[in-house]
Amino acid sequence: MAAISREDVAHLAKLARIDMNESELDHLVSELGVILGAVARVQEAAAGDIPPTSHPFPVNNVFREDVVRPSLTNAQALSGAPAKDEERFKVPQILGEE
Amino acid sequence: MSEISIYSTAADMSAALATGVTTSVELTNAHFERIAAVEPAVHSFLHLDQEGALAQAAHVDAERAAGKKLAPLAGVPLALKDVLAQEGVPTTAGSKMLENWRPPYDATVVAKLKEAGIIILGKTNMDEFAMGSSTENSAYGNTHNPWDLTRIPGGSGGGSAAALAAFEAPLAIGTDTGGSIRQPAAVTGTVGVKPTYGGVSRYGLIAFSSSLDQAGPCARTVLDTALLHEAIAGYDPMDSTSINAPVPRVVEAAKKLDVKGLKIGVVKELLGDGFQAGVRQRFEEALEELVKAGATIVEVSCPNFDYGLAAYYLIAPSEASSNLARFDSMRYGLRVGDDGSRSAEAVMNLTRHEGFGPEVKRRIILGTYALSSGYYDAYYGSAQKVRTLVKRDFDKAFAEVDVLVSPTCPTTAFKLGENVDDPLAMYLNDIATIPVNLAGIGGMSLPAGLAPEDGLPVGFQIMSPGMRDDLMYQVGGTLEAALVSKWGKTLLSQAPALGGN
């Protein structure tokens, strides 16, 4: 497997919606290289025909009756909003200049 | 009963409250005095809710005076890890992203604590979003180990464990994704339990890795831990992974003090050269006590545990990269750079740059990579297969023995700053605790003594099959009684005195 490059990390940061400065990218390239080198060994163990486990115990979909239950009021739901406009969340423009 | 003080067990405090020897207000005030005296040195708490706690204490006292039947721990104080939502009380998960956030609702665990009349003193320090093994990843400063203030209190629940060891609270709540309850317990000489996955509700827990996260009880004795366990456990329809089955009878099990006929397996792979000599020595001495108490000890092999750490550091970051996408600066939490000219996406990118610390960014990027097309099968897919293999190792072992044991951590508490620049060295702390999370079973850490070479606490880990949490309490309670009788005192009574008395 090819080592992770600076361009890879910059692309991943973009996917993860995190701005990264040059020194953060430098650090991450070397750290992720070391970490990936160590964790890649899962491939040795998983070589055979083994079913994957995504969850400790088998769980099925849990359904409930479709009835109205108490929930947050508008004021409660908006209580932590960075910005609000009356009964709504106020967000920056969703269509950028570009 | 001896005099009640902040050094008493929660069980003794509970009895003293029930018989009117003390009141919850008195007890709560005594703990706030202690907190005021030692917090400058220890820094266990991110937020103290003195007003709320005293109001709650007065309420419990009034109910008791009115003759109302109260839950066993009613009136006993507790320290709450800052990753659980508590209505109206600042909840940060150790992150700048949630600075000043006050949740509009209670986590189920918090609702149960309140229902049981347990007094919540405040919120404890932790690694940001529970990612770390030293609490050094908190955005709000380090917590110091009460045994040696230059050392780490473990992580991510270092604040909860330090609060117990510093006698700032007799009870605490932690969460454990890869060892964040058990490792801090081990390095502070306290007791911590990760219940069976699904045994305690995750509703209102700020999610890190949803298939691994589990809240659990922390205390200074096995019985106190069991009492708290029963107060917070049980089925919750608000958590779709909650187990709809009776809570294991852990209090009864903790009181048994008998392991005759039990078969205990020592995991060969969790006792190698990577473990400090004094850790191995105290672990082996503890085994002798269990033999004297009538248990049979056998060695078992779990060959795939060797891959557990690698699988964990793919699965947990992958789930985290998805879970932490919710911190988008739109509905709650930090928002940076919203000056009217930037788009929502630019604000989001800037906010996540400013709001997340280095370890959280590292794990989000790692997780994003492991889940990206072209690498998914090699990394995340393989890690999920390892998870199956680890589960099979446990299944095979539990077919032969009742519980498994190991040291909780490879070493005693290391120095603050020692591993901050070496993520892999930091991750190695969790080598013995991670398999339990991958399989979703129960795990406990309790003190095994002090390592001869450095005089610091050593943790003994007990692992029990899914929903047989009672077994680890039975073995833990028996071992604790044997060791305290051998030492002639509790482990924590040997900790150095902290400021204030």
Can you describe what's shown?
- The complex is a heterodimer of chains A (98) and B (501).
- By secondary structure, chain A is mainly alpha-helical.
- Chain A has a domain at 1-46: Histone, subunit A (Orthogonal Bundle).
- Helices cover 37% and strands 4% of the residues of chain A.
- Chain A has a two-stranded antiparallel ribbon with strand order 1-2.
- In chain A, a hairpin with a 2-residue loop joins strand 1 and strand 2 (88-89).
- The two termini of chain A are 36 Å apart.
- Chain B has 501 residues and is α/β, with parallel strands linked by helices.
- Chain B has a single domain, classed as Amidase signature (AS) domain (Amidase signature (AS) enzymes), CATH 3.90.1300.10.
- Chain B has helices at residues 10-18, 24-42, 50-65, 108-115, 158-165, 182-188, 222-232, 250-256, 277-292, 308-323, 344-355, 358-371, 377-400, 423-427, 434-439, 469-487, and strands at 45-48, 77-81, 119-124, 171-175, 191-194, 215-219, 263-267, 296-300, 403-407, 442-450, 457-464.
- The radius of gyration of chain B is 21 Å and the shape is globular.
- The chains are: A mainly alpha (98), B alpha/beta (501).
- Chains A and B meet through helix 1, helix 2 and helix 3 of A and helix 10, helix 11, helix 12 and helix 13 of B.
